[in-house]
User: Fold these one by one.
Assistant:
Number 1:
Amino acid sequence: MAASAAALRELMPIPRTRLIGREAELLHARALLIDEAIPLLTLTGPGGVGKTRLALAVAGEVAGDFADGVVWIDLAPLSDPALVPAAVARALGLVPSPDRPLADQVANALRPRQTLVLLDNCEQVLTTTADLAASLVAVCPALQILATSRAPLRIRSEQMLAVDPLPLPEVGAEPSLAALSGNAAVALFSDRARSVQPSFVLTPANAPAVTAICRHLDGLPLAIELAAARWRALTPAELRDRLAARRLDLAGARDLPPRQQSLSAAIAWSHGLLAPANTLAEVSVAVGNPQPSGRTLPGQLSGAAASFRG
């Protein structure tokens, strides 16, 4: 027997911070899931770009449109791809029967339901997750899947929505303080800085340093949030200078997932997803290469990758 829709919704993590700069993506995702009812929507993008945070916002936005609720499954802790069906079954509240394949039992539980299944952090178990998703959407007519992954699942029913770093103030421009405050990357830094130092205000004196920090971190939300968390100990100018000199590895809250507690941890997580034959040199090449959006990962991440080479 599976858990009730109300119980399933209670399993969803509750974000305690504002979603900033993702209004367009939120509207687009909602339209794809509700207006077009696509079977599988995958939010793709580099690590730290905020795919999970956006997915949780999307799920919360559309939950009322699914009669049988939203089911969230975090695949990040899984190192064995064979455990993916068990993780989905556990989230559904299924008691597995030993005489039938677990994937079939998951499909039988979802077949009569109008449910949104959120498969979060698919990249390290990508093939197994893609196979399971393909089999589920093929036999569950009212099921829809929202996935987050650094790479697409590459199945026929999939539609991708790229999640890019936040837009930055134009280089060489001298925008007003009001215009800077409205920029998504600067607004994110300011909001998170206020969470550790309520007196923080963007001023003409600190705005250039805050802008430089956001540019240095290439608008990557995780990096900006980790930087803003250092506001209590460092002024924006000191933080800007240390980042520019690559003398600071940004560290965050202890209750973040381990891969998000520092930028070096994020790089280590990315390296762990590479095939064994790949080398650390390939990590640095990958970090410096353009992303699908045409942007590169931030210099601070390049510096973290360099630190792994000793």
Number 2:
Amino acid sequence: MNPTEDLSPLERRLVTAVEVGEVVDLAGEARVDPAEMDGWPPEREIRAEVIRDVLLGRLGDTADPRGLRVRGARIVGTLDLEAVRIEMLLRLSSCDFTDVIWVRGTQVPLLDLRDSRLRGLNGRELTVERAVLLSRVVVPNGYVSLAGARVGAVCSCENARLHNAGGRALHADRIQIDGDLLLDGLTAEGTGADGAVRLLGAHIDGRVSARGVRLTNRSGPALVADNLQVPDTVDFSHGVRVLGHGPSGAVRMVGARVGSISFGDAELENPAGPALAAHYADVGGTVYLDGLRARGMVRLSGARIGGRLDAPGAQVDGSCEPALDATRLQAAQGVVLRDTVLTGGGEVRAALQLLGARIGGDLDLRAAQLRNDQGPALRLGRATVQGPLLMSPISVSAGGISMQSTSVVVLYDNPTNLSADVPLRLDGLTYRGIPGDPRVRITVQHRIGWLRQLESYAAQPYRQLAAAYQAAGHEEEARRVLVAQQEHLRDSGLLTGWARRRHRLLGVTLGYGYQSWRAVAGLLATIAVAVVLLVTAGSATARAEATGRPVGGCPLVERIGLAIDTTVPLVDTGSATRCVIVSDSGTGQTVLVATWVLRLLGWAFATLVVAGYTGLVRRG
């Protein structure tokens, strides 16, 4: 272009302004409303090719260090700066662009498009020494692409409004930002499986601030940030609203490596999949989900958290999937799910899924409300909790609790506030001390009732509880628990035939080896029956002479001694040699047969007494 021809007055003004460092300001002090841009007169138009020639030094003399600054103009045509190196700052704020801006592969010190209306921005592999400023930009139907871009300071899209009916609204895969990424107040709507906003593999050395963003994609994920790397905070809190659709998730942060994450008070929705998919994420600090409202699963399986998972008051409806899937989660400083409402799961997976989790501090489930209409509400199998497990109170409106093969330091719970129809799986659960909420009086009978809610009989939960009572010096409570274990085994249907009959007999006579007084009572009762029998049937007894012939009746003392000799093994009062039963009458024969039976009972009860007190039955 000839620098002296074909320029409009506004374009000549631009050339001069760049030379002297002035701003071409057509908007004044007021902020420009994009809706008013359609009414701008032709006098506010600057051709894109003129701007390109100025930036490349083809128009005007040496540019002022303050660069090219235009405000409130309409830029007509395609601003094509692809693969060029620009030496001056580029500020085109509050402008209306009639075509897509091409800065693919461009090198520029600064790019400022704040408050402008764009038809699109292609900034793939863009290099900006300082900042990219897209605050309050409006894209009615197009995309902003910064994929692979390199930004030396801040990249700001605060309060921008991006809409693309044919794909991604903001594409920033593999972007590298040496400072912060500011997305506060961003509204972005896109379509398709690629996502509305993409930060796949992005590397931000500062923080990501995205408070109050509105992201929408009705045919795919709203945010894709897999493998995102941010050593500082990623903040999606304070009024965030995200709507996505599909099995990949509304928000995806799979494998992300960040300093901390916050979705506090955010609302995430995905009617066809996870609301938040952050499995295998590596978080150096804390994951904040306090006050989160999510329709769709929150997936943190395999994630590693150096701080806490902090989600008090969160409400998540996973539908047919778990509300919170934290399988194999590692949380170094604990998990706080106090006052949460978690609904969802299936026949196998629970509303709250913590299989194989490793929790370095407390697991706080106080006042949590769990529901799964198809299967378990809480599944904590093969987990390790290195602090207290706080479950008092906890509400399970539907579903069971499974804590199989789980190790906790202390179990704070209250079985009295757990509904009796909640099935439990506790085999392999270990803890220290007597479980229970120290603020609530929990009796051993409450604990036995708790164990009777086991979905299927298991011995270990009873033995674990009995050992806890015994270690605390409560021997009687320990015995009651162990007796209850055997009663549960008896009622379980696992024993059949002779084993079942033998088990019942030992239960009645010895309390399964834990109540030997029952056998002592049986032996004493047998002795009493024998005494009553021989005392009342005096006519059937007689003194034995040296010749062996019975003569006369036995004295009362001798009859009592005979009863003892008959029923108590290895005891000999001598009465059996001085007093005999005369069996030449019907009464005598009856008494003789009765003493045989009593002798057998005496031996049986005496044997049971020995077996009970020596522990032979319990070992058996």
